[in-house]
Amino acid sequence: QARLVASGGGLVPAGGSLRLSCATSVRPFSTLGMAWFRQAPGREREFLGRTSWRGGDIYYGDSVKGRFTIAIDGASNTMYLQMNNLKPEDTGIYYCAMFSDGDPTYDYWGQGTQVTVSS
Question: How far, rounded to the nearest angstrom, does the alpha carbon of residue 4 sit from its chain's CA centroid?
Answer without folding.
Answer: 11
